[in-house]
Write a structure and sequence with these properties.
eight-stranded mixed beta sheet; Nucleotidyltransferase, domain 5; about 400 residues; alpha/beta; six-stranded mixed beta sheet; about 20% strand; globular; binds adenosine-5'-diphosphate
């Protein structure tokens, strides 16, 4: 097998996703997930050549042990020799990283330093990097940052109106996340919709469990809805998105919430889950709404209203709009949410083609705006792993 594949690792605090990808065409050779790590019943599953396999891991297996199991799987499948690099998704690159980089001791130290901005994410990413360095000492390790694409956002959009010294001394500002996805779908939008990237005005809505929307002008991110942390912005599966910051002191001083309880409330108990009082899963909420569940209907309405408001506000940084792109689990699959959002935005000149909107589901994507719509709307399935593989391969071949 020719040697050109990239192993992509996306480590979370108790799980990691992995994939072996051909960076040239984006084909996935192997992909899988290790979950419930450091817990009593961890497990790993993967798909290779269309066959799904489940592996039991010893109780309380760590990331390192699970990555060792992954190495055995890769060896058993005779895929080791085909690898040229390991590409790591790293959530927070702060202001240090504006693009993907080869991981050196200095880079590791800088990622470590940024961990205070992403205490839930960067430490898990670092564990994955160290385990992969140990497992694949001969392969280059490349870091691809969720924040990097948004480093082009101008100062007037990324600063909060709080004392400037908090930015100067502590880096408190808006960073934005999901950058790899916003980059990929906006780039694909230019290719598939025939837009001139250097002269394009695109809004991308990444709607999964986490949700964010970005304004992309001439190929560069100029604003995005997530902020210092992924809590800001849109209504999400379990996150509140924007709230009055005064809520924090109300909850702590009037209702005796601790900091941890406020954090859990806003990150884990709010959003679609909190509003519907049913589920954070959009499919369940849609089914319940159809069956007349009032809270489910309300949750969908608020989700779509807030998203449409954000989208329309991005006409300011863009000065117009060529295309609106939906992606992520909800964006790629929920014709109902797309239709509701587009109907809020009819004043912008976007008109939904209802039958195309119904067809563009289940990973197929497609144009969903009607002929004659002055703004194009489309569903483009995201592929963050491919971007990570492409960057890792490019940096590896560049430095060979
Ligand atoms: P993550 O952010 O964890 O990667 P995903 O991008 O996979 O999440 O998106 C998960 C969301 O997509 C869930 O809310 C799920 O209900 C929603 N979703 C998946 N399929 C559908 C569907 N057919 N209709 C509506 N929502 C869907």
């Amino acid at each position: 097998m020719p040697s050109h594949h990239v192993l992509v690792l996306n480590c979370g605090s108790s799980s990691f996703k992995f994939a072996i990808i051909d960076p040239h065409h984006g084909e996935t050779l192997l992909n899988g997930l290790a979950e419930r790590l450091n817990d009593s019943n961890p497990a790993m599953k993967y798909t290779y050549n269309g066959t799904k396999t489940n592996i039991e891991l010893a109780s309380f297996s760590s990331h390192t042990i699970a990555i060792e199991s992954l190495v055995s799987i890769i060896q058993d499948l005779n895929l080791s020799d085909s690898l040229i690099a390991v590409g790591h998704r790293v959530v927070h690159g702060g202001e240090t990283f504006t693009q993907s980089v080869e991981i050196t001791p200095d880079v590791l130290a800088a990622i470590q330093k940024t961990s205070n901005l992403a205490p839930l994410h960067n430490p898990a990413n670092l564990i994955g990097i160290e385990a992969a360095q140990h497992a694949f000492p001969n392969l280059k390790q490349i870091a691809v940052f969720d924040t990097a694409f948004h480093q082009t956002i101008p100062e007037h959009a990324y600063l909060y109106a709080i004392p400037y010294s908090l930015y100067q001394d502590h880096g408190i500002r808006r960073y934005g996340f999901h950058g790899t996805s916003h980059y990929y779908v906006s780039d694909m939008a230019c290719k598939t919709l025939g837009l001139d990237k250097q002269n394009s005005k695109i809004i991308t809505a990444h709607l999964g469990n986490g949700c964010s929307v970005s304004a992309i002008k001439n190929g560069q991110s100029v604003d995005t809805s997530m902020g210092l942390t992924p809590l800001e912005g849109l209504v999400m599966g379990t996150r509140s998105g924007d709230i009055d910051p005064g809520l924090f002191s109300y909850l702590t001083s009037q209702l005796n919430y601790s900091n941890e309880q406020v954090d859990a409330l806003l990150n884990k108990q709010s959003g679609l889950l909190g509003l519907s009082q049913l589920s954070n899963d959009c499919r369940e909420i849609e089914d319940a709404a159809q069956a007349g569940h009032r809270q489910a209907l309300l949750a969908l309405d608020i989700f779509c209203y807030r998203l449409a408001k954000y989208i329309s506000s991005y006409l300011v940084p863009l000065g117009g709009l060529d295309a609106l792109i939906f992606t992520g689990g909800i964006g790629e699959n929920s014709s109902l949410i797309r239709q509701k959002v587009l109907s809020h935005l009819s004043f912008v000149g976007v008109r939904c083609d209802d039958s195309q909107n119904e067809i563009a589901r289940f990973g197929k994507g497609g144009i969903i705006s009607a002929n004659g719509s002055s703004v194009q709307a489309a569903v483009i399935p995201t592929n963050e792993e491919w971007v990570i593989a492409t960057d890792a391969a490019a940096l590896t071949l560049e430095t060979k």
